[in-house]
User: What shape does this take?
Amino acid sequence: MSKIMPPAHPFDTSYLRDADDGDKLKEECGVFGVVGVADASNFVALGLHALQHRGQEAGGIVSYDPTDGFQSARRFGYVRDNFTSQKIMETLPGELAIGHVRYSTSGNKGPTAIRDVQPFFGEFAMGGAAIAHNGNITNANALRRELIERGSIFQSSSDSECIIHLMARSLQRNIPERMEDALRRVEGAFSVVAMTRTKLIGVRDPLGVRPLVLGKVGDGWALSSETCALDIIGADFVREIEPGEMVVITDKGVESHFPFRRLEPRFCIFEHVYFSRPDSILGGRSVYETREAIGRELAKESPVEADLVCPVPDSGTPAAIGFSLQSGIPYAMGIIRNQYMGRTFIEPTEQIRNMGVRLKLNVNRALIKGKRVILVDDSVVRGTTSRKIKEMILDAGAKEVHFRIASPPTAWPCFYGVDTPQREKLLAATMSEEEMRDHLQVDSLKFISIDGLYRAVGETEGRNDECPQYCDACFTGDYPVRPADQIDKGFEMKPAAE
Amino acid sequence: MSKIMPPAHPFDTSYLRDADDGDKLKEECGVFGVVGVADASNFVALGLHALQHRGQEAGGIVSYDPTDGFQSARRFGYVRDNFTSQKIMETLPGELAIGHVRYSTSGNKGPTAIRDVQPFFGEFAMGGAAIAHNGNITNANALRRELIERGSIFQSSSDSECIIHLMARSLQRNIPERMEDALRRVEGAFSVVAMTRTKLIGVRDPLGVRPLVLGKVGDGWALSSETCALDIIGADFVREIEPGEMVVITDKGVESHFPFRRLEPRFCIFEHVYFSRPDSILGGRSVYETREAIGRELAKESPVEADLVCPVPDSGTPAAIGFSLQSGIPYAMGIIRNQYMGRTFIEPTEQIRNMGVRLKLNVNRALIKGKRVILVDDSVVRGTTSRKIKEMILDAGAKEVHFRIASPPTAWPCFYGVDTPQREKLLAATMSEEEMRDHLQVDSLKFISIDGLYRAVGETEGRNDECPQYCDACFTGDYPVRPADQIDKGFEMKPAAE
Amino acid sequence: MSKIMPPAHPFDTSYLRDADDGDKLKEECGVFGVVGVADASNFVALGLHALQHRGQEAGGIVSYDPTDGFQSARRFGYVRDNFTSQKIMETLPGELAIGHVRYSTSGNKGPTAIRDVQPFFGEFAMGGAAIAHNGNITNANALRRELIERGSIFQSSSDSECIIHLMARSLQRNIPERMEDALRRVEGAFSVVAMTRTKLIGVRDPLGVRPLVLGKVGDGWALSSETCALDIIGADFVREIEPGEMVVITDKGVESHFPFRRLEPRFCIFEHVYFSRPDSILGGRSVYETREAIGRELAKESPVEADLVCPVPDSGTPAAIGFSLQSGIPYAMGIIRNQYMGRTFIEPTEQIRNMGVRLKLNVNRALIKGKRVILVDDSVVRGTTSRKIKEMILDAGAKEVHFRIASPPTAWPCFYGVDTPQREKLLAATMSEEEMRDHLQVDSLKFISIDGLYRAVGETEGRNDECPQYCDACFTGDYPVRPADQIDKGFEMKPAAE
Amino acid sequence: MSKIMPPAHPFDTSYLRDADDGDKLKEECGVFGVVGVADASNFVALGLHALQHRGQEAGGIVSYDPTDGFQSARRFGYVRDNFTSQKIMETLPGELAIGHVRYSTSGNKGPTAIRDVQPFFGEFAMGGAAIAHNGNITNANALRRELIERGSIFQSSSDSECIIHLMARSLQRNIPERMEDALRRVEGAFSVVAMTRTKLIGVRDPLGVRPLVLGKVGDGWALSSETCALDIIGADFVREIEPGEMVVITDKGVESHFPFRRLEPRFCIFEHVYFSRPDSILGGRSVYETREAIGRELAKESPVEADLVCPVPDSGTPAAIGFSLQSGIPYAMGIIRNQYMGRTFIEPTEQIRNMGVRLKLNVNRALIKGKRVILVDDSVVRGTTSRKIKEMILDAGAKEVHFRIASPPTAWPCFYGVDTPQREKLLAATMSEEEMRDHLQVDSLKFISIDGLYRAVGETEGRNDECPQYCDACFTGDYPVRPADQIDKGFEMKPAAE
Assistant: This one.
């Protein structure tokens, strides 16, 4: 069952943003495409599986074969559960395919909400094209309204659908030029993988907010959100697609264009902290190493005497290892993660407190008892989970609990393709570090500084406040693209003077 | 899995027409709508259940409620299996709802082919609208090509989607006028039920090829393909919507318009013979009575001495009763239909011949043995089933087998919303009545005459060849609307001189 | 979810009997077996499909193949939905197979209730055996209690499981003798089809209450509840298994034994009236002809002036035809049955009365209006449906309604394998024919007399009250086997003096 | 579809043991029970979720409530997917419940194989009982044969079913005594949790091979395979059930019995190495700490110069941390585990080698390149995975690869409740340590010594060869209980002289 249209605000798709009540920021998408190899869709399935951490709600694959034309399969659930059967994969023949995984942004999972699952397809006078989009269009509401007034009919509630309608109305005579035309009207963050009957196309927005990399697999080519998905298909990592670059790949090779006005790049720094997989390579070194370096910086900035350094599993692990290596305090698994997490159980009685977190995590009681424990986590969003973990650790008899956080305080929502709570629900939006420590009732709480984070990603001078090297809006409120739709809906930007 | 686009013929949707290998013509759709009653979607579910014989592949319902807006559920399978759960029906609130059942025109039943299931919905600048269409648009390919060239993106492979795109591009300022605008561009047969946030709309094409009736239910109103669906919801039958009429129904009442150029009506005569349910009322009397009258005409035109008159169940039953009553030959159930038919069983060995038909039908052996049997069937399409039935009857020891057919020879395909085999597969397109008798190897084979059929439907003078009272193109090749798309694809009309 | 054990009455399985609130008696089972043909399980699937009217809840097949041993598949739902896939049927190899269909006797359909689905299998010291049972064991509770006290563990709540436990404890050295041993302890009605690794076995209880027939298919043999299932597999009907007979069939042929004390046969007369399919042969003529004869008897016994004779579809059809042929009053389909019945729809509002029956049946309003109508039905159980049908007919404008019933008043429950309401819920248990007429508010109501029924089944002298030719306990209260378990639970037999 | 009986060897259930082709030993079961708390089944669901690592194929819960009696639900799949819906849990009311999770020992997952899922239930003359068994009965074939000869009918192919049949035939007058009676006939390893209408019962075999612990939850009690499942329900860990002890728990408290002949305990040492969860407490300290200690011992016994210590995730992690802490070589995540593993993907082309392992694991290429790497794994079973991991590491450019294994060579199968390959498939059964190094082609390969392992679990003197403190048969071939069924089938024990 899908709500075709919310009644009061005909162009408002904000309802898609409010469903998450978890306590992590969530990347919304991963994209992958391959050309020039037999059974391309099987490569795409593998690539999407390796990108599953970027979107777990649903996935889709479109393939093209001269005999069967464009074919599509879109499903809710994990890639492993949908794109592993012979029966499905046989329906996706050809040497050219693209795919998409997306994060669940709403509770609607009924059969017709499948129309929000990408890739999107459009039939144009010169043939069909499919696109998969990672990012977020910040002027989508205005574009949608304009397109509807001209007679376009939207199939989905997804912002990304604007791109295909803009392409349909472009006056250009071939699909790559129509895509340039469309993307010039789009504001925000986008890494797009697209395909026609003969071409695999990749584009990154001028700021390069979201990642996109190029790989070589046999005689063919692959485009992927991250390098870890090149590894799974045995592809060699060639290079990152540059901010503002469009690559058009055919069996003759890779053509590169720069259709947009050039801007200074602002890659998302949170990809280093949390979103990307630790075995992916960003900027020439493994994300794991960067996270370990964050832990080392944190140990330098905010040392504390303790018996054990424990990660909040699994995302805090590399930083905790770095903190231990820098500080010399032994690393230990003080919290064990249940790998069979899933749906919510029915709470039997009031005897069970904090059951939600118990389903996922259990304290290694015999180890923790009587110890001074440093807990390393990647970020604090609402603070709800941090508080529960602290209680579990104290219940188990820890003598002291010190939180060390591998990112600066998250004080502003992301409008570039990450699912963030509204600003007022971000703990750091309303509290200072000290107030947060009181709120969480821990012995100490320290976040890495913004300059410490920049140093850990390799900027030895720290952040360049005149011209920041990364998009760090979630920490600083410094938004490189004006979030027009959000401002229309009442979002207040940080005053310029601040 | 749905084929997004066949590769070679980008605007050709003819592949949708070739899948049926059954031996009956099949109505493609039933439509139903209701306004002004609480829980309108539950009424629609009941109405569609009563219209299930018009389309068994899939069904959909759209409802509107001021709080929840437009809501939609579309499912493959029977209405009874999909629209009976509290869980689904609760998602379709409101006092205004429309629905659609459709016949399976292709083997594609994967999750994305659900996009071909109606009602279709479009969001326009002045609000949303949903439409459900029974019939066939004979210039759909040309319209689709034109719309794509202007930048429309089609969601489905259904001809009916053209209507909503034409509406999206209309310059008119309200939805009923946009619908008039759109339908004036459409050629072919259509009975449409549509809805906006406040209006239930019904339209019949100027020839009135497909049925559409108006009913009163409590303080509200209903539109339905047939009266039998009014009965199931306890509605009173008010009148038929007239050919070329548009009704716009609100809580203030029923407004009637005639937006099209007036033409002499040509209602489908096959609705009387086979498509409509025997308990529906067409032209003031029950379809059952008309069919009984056909049997009486047949007994007068083609009498034969025999021991028993047996129907080919279930569609031949009323005509067989009429034949028996007219001839005085006892009526009997010589063939028993298994009411648990379904998927195809695996044939164990070659010992079983004609298993397909045995799954559905069994001869009442002890009754038939040694008898001269008249079998009454509604029509002969390919002749494959007729031949198998004849063999079963002879195997069971019948002394003679005489076929009497309650329609004239089906020699031409229907292009107005009925799933017909290509012309060369119609037995009567290539054989005379006598050749068909030889082919089927029966003792006699007689079809009702075209005039006999007209007499049975109440035209006492028979067919008016100058200005025929019905569409009987499937028997005569006299097509009241030029089938433009088919002619583009090579279909040859009957020479005018003939 | 299955209730393993009701708490208060540890040996009472009566809860299985009370779930039906329909208004028809329901046969509980059909059995089928085949030996000596390749892919025996495919034949069994077809046979069970033809016997589906005897049990629609669930079905099971056991096969034996020297390589794969005994294999089993048991499923809820129709045969056509479960035993038609290559994937399932390949798991049931071999030349020997048996199967069972059962009626839903309880609402429990969860995964573990599948253990109540037959055939049952037991591994004995000398090898395995599977059995499928049609009928009912009247001393099952006592047997079950005895077996549990000796250490048997029951897998199901089915009475039929007693047979396999009795076999497991028999001192005999081969399986057919163990089966004789077991069945000698069993009271009630049983037609059993069983198999070992090499033998197909069929047994009928000494009274022969339930049917069982032998057929020849190629070089092999088949056992079936009814002949219609022989037809579907192309088998020739050889003969009925005699009351009290056991046949043991191997590739050497058919051996016949009579292991029980001989009794006068008492075949169930209701098989003629309602349970068996009209195309099956019982006592040398088709069940259809017997039912037509019942209609003729009824017309002789209880004539009435009217315009139309209409069946209550579908079970009243043959008797209505007979009534029409005898009386000369035209036969017509005044009530149309919706062939897409299914789950219960949600009632939209109180405007819809009698929706339950409307889902299945609709009056042919235009035909019925102003007419005097004779409605012929097979039986009246609770009378609830009869009442609703009468109302629908009157709503449609009928001038008079006369009910004619093709069986005597059903005043006593069946304890021999038929699902009957408790006695106090049977309309005829508490009312005279005249009271029933008042209750139903019809112009007349007449049941066939018990002697009329006997004449129609060929007993020209009517019922022999000294030694009745049939089991007619449901009409007369004359139970040929004492229903011991029921009497333990408080059932009161008809006083002997009556 | 389940194979009811393998044809040639009627009492041989060995086919259940051969299906695993993975490269880990797998615990076969976890048991949990609770009494004296409202909604007991919800506690059991949580406990089973925490024990999911002990068995992932299927799970079952039985509950008892005075109103509803015994109720049962058994399902394939994870606890989180089955026992979290209100609908299921409402069918399991009461204050007393037990549950079981089991490992997949065969590929049969069809509907009837559900009968192999525990708890098993039996109805006895004095009432019902349900049992859940962790372990393995080494004389099950002989018992099964004996029981079948006496007339028991087995429902499943599970060894554990013998216990309930032995109980059914016991002459004792109450259920706990019947259970003692039954378990005295049983040889092998068993930790049993059982229930009657009023009692929760726990038993451990005289050697105490499998774990079983007692917890206090509110006013009630819990029994669990491991303490981590007490944590999840907020229960306090009271004590381990002792080897040979039976506890009978009612609302009056815990009664303790020792019904078996006393033996020296032989707890499974592999529970410390791999099976139990790291946050469980065994012998007074966390399993995590024992594993870290194993890593320290290994670093002392087999040091090597290297740049990084990396675990093979996830089971090698604690020992790798211990190795790093002891050796001073930095710990790092050189191999990243994909947490979305699942079904097998279709291999697109031959370009992808080792895809199986790539689905689960990816090398952190940028980190590993040019480094000397120590890989710490928990065990080597067949060696297939170790070999693939080595290749991935070398492909990524590692300079040296050193394997350190946290257990001695696994050279003998386990017959006490663990799924082990046949002896000839164990790498260590046919190769020396040096041959294994050559086979795996790594720079060095060292296993911990048997005495080193005993020291790590707290036996400072190492193994007492006269009277070993643990069952270590998988390493030493010293089987504390004669595996009678296996010897019957040809298994050869280690010669006593060795």
DSSP finds 18 helices and 26 strands in chain D.
